[in-house]
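Field notebook, page 816. I keep forgetting to write these up properly, so this time I am using the form the group agreed on. The chain and the ligand, zinc ion, are recorded exactly as supplied. Prediction of the bound pose follows.
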Amino acid sequence: MYFIDAILPIPLKQAFTYSVNKDEAAFLKQGMRVAIPFGKSKVYTGIVYQVHDQAPVGYETKSIDHILDEEPIITAIQIKHWEWLANYYMCSLGEVIKAALPSAFLLESETIIKLSSQNFQDEASLTDDEFVLYEALQHQSSIHINDARSILDRKNIVSVIQKLLDKNIIEVEETVYEQYTPKLKRYIKLASEYTSEESLRELLDSLNRAHKQREVLMHLFMLNTQTKKPISSTTLQKKSEASAATLKALIDKGILEEYFIQQDRVAFLGEASSEIKTLNEAQSVAYQEIKTSFKTNDTVLLHGVTSSGKTEIYVRLIEEAISKGKQVLYMLPEIALTTQLISRLQKYFGEKISVYHSKFSVNERVEVWNNVLTEKPKAQIVIGARSSLFLPFKNLGLIIVDEEHEPSFKQYSPAPRYNARDSAIVLANFQNTKLLMGSATPSLESYHNAKTGKFGLVTLKKRFGNVLMPEIELVDVKEKNRKKQMTGHFSDRLLEEMHEVLKNGEQIILFQNRRGFSPVVECTTCGVSPQCPNCDVSLTFHQHRNQLRCHYCGYNMAMMQSCIACGSETLDTKGFGTEQIETELKTLFPNHKVARMDQDTTKGKNSYSKLIEALENEEIDILVGTQMLAKGLDFRNISLVGVMNADNLLNFPDFRAHERSFQLLQQVSGRAGRTQKRGKVLIQTYNPYHQILKQVSVNDYEGMYKEQLEERYNYKYPPFFRTIKIVFKDKNLARVQKASAWFGQALEMQFKENVLGPEPPPVGRIKNKYIINLLVKIPKNQSLDKTKKYIENVQRSFNSLKDFSSVRVNIDVDNY
Ligand code: ADP
Ligand code: ZN
Ligand code: ZN
């Protein structure tokens, strides 16, 4: 008897044992996929964890359905790393696998529709929808349920399918099917019987009256003499200006033949075109220090001010690693925001670069995965967002975590709620390689690790080319209001500088950390402001669409003319977002090009890169946007950055709010004056004496670090204490209160005053679910493992309580 333990992509923690025959046992290896029956009729993809001969006690094993891979698609190191993740972030290995594998690898049973065998005649009796589906099935043997949906162009197709089933026209089947389909490109060649000159002449003569077809053939010959490469049908069609029908006619006649070649979807066609830059003195020193530091440290933090040339140092290290035949992983917080960096690196490394992130289609992701697994040169350098951490590297020589301070390295939901930066450190360790993290504004945690000797630390204090750091000026909005020196949301100082900059033909970036026109609409008569029916937040007014929208659940309604409560027409808006700034700019600077960059304007696939390009080409004079603007962009001609209102950043109720404000403001400021001329930054605020703003204005990272560290120490937060957040959600407020109180009491028995809450977050209800949080703080001398075990035990007892069975509990380790 042989068995396998398989891991299923589901939140259950145990492994599942299935029986296999002798041949299967000999063939199967850890990391291969198998299709396995689960529950009544479901088929899942499982990953083989181990093959053994120990029959499980207490239950009869089922046998596997079939084997899906010839070779493991997951390496032993990956499994080890994923087990660490599951353990550390308190979730199941199945959940990690679900996050880690491109979904195309995880087949589930799917519903397929087929025509039933009986001959059906009475087509007239069918409704339109029924007929469309019926007809589609005449052309293909089966249709997947999702395709049926798009054929009928409606969501709910169950009733249509049910009718067809009732009439015995179709039958439904559950099958496992492979989602990944290789992309095939169609090529055309002449059928072999026409390759002799004689037969060719005859052929052309015979086509004397079919002008178009003849034309196609003539072009095919021409192309054949020009190139030895295969000729694609699109090329042929374009060159000969023929229609698809003409081509088809030739194929039908057997004169032309079509054939297909598999193609990678993500292909970079350019070539490496630039030499790697020679490092300047400061960079060379830093580079040497990093190398030296790597001798004694596995992780090194490169703290270099914005525009100090960190990227060029990474480039040198990457080059070194790949010249030794190693793979390199370059992680970024948000890949959508890094078009600039990708094209920059492509200039150096050409097609050795693969990009990997969740916005890619499943097929594209599978291709990158396979290229990494088989160590293809084209995937030698992977640039990716946090999920690139899960790729099957075989021969990793370096990991770079750029902008390591970015909160988006942490996944909030769903589990695994992992921090990709921290998990990368563990990965580097398992891969026996080094990790370099870089930032102009390191996270307190990382800087503390560097200062206390856990990481190496290398510093770059000057900008490249000795460009000065921008001059930062704080503008007191309260005073400006009092002196009537505000025009809309613009102070006279900001306007002055803007006019000056525009006069010199330079560009401006304006930062406002809110999208929409204004976050609150209020009736000045009765004070009522429209709220989201599903969440405890007020609706944001979006002027362009004349809508009120909820930024938490997407709920929207048309903007009202008068108050819903009292009918008065005295509606007023409070606060302002990017849209309002854009509107004001258009009146203030009617002769200049204004554009906006926020979630609302960057929904389309390429809209973000288009905006970046327009800014690079100086087709935009003033760009207003949210924190998207802060991330690693490098523009030549921006000489002024304006922060419209720094206060709502600072007032955010979170222990990291001040650190974050500092980072965000420094990063936005860093976009100014990256070339010879010194840039200028104006920060508008009601509170110019705020310590953080002062520190921002004089680039005092050290000062910020020391002060915040002290606060963290006093209030028992990271890096001195670890935190685990436990989030409870339920439709019923009383129930979620009771549940969290029960859980909280159980925790307090053990952890005493180190349990905070239960307490609702600032937005206490989202999508109709009430939310309550508990926070467990863990001192350095308390075992993390034992703490987690204790929490798990409490959770187990909790799960057995019927009253709370509807309450969702999410555990978030090192929460952000
Ligand atoms: P950072 O990553 O620290 O923000 P970058 O690497 O983007 O800084 O460098 C800032 C600018 O200086 C870029 O435009 C870059 O091309 C240029 N630069 C950096 N190092 C060099 C170098 N050694 N030679 C020429 N240009 C450089
Ligand atoms: Zn009213
Ligand atoms: Zn809502």
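OBSERVATIONS:
- DSSP finds 26 helices and 36 strands in the chain.
- The first helix runs from residue 22 to 27.
FOLLOW-UP: compare against the apo run.
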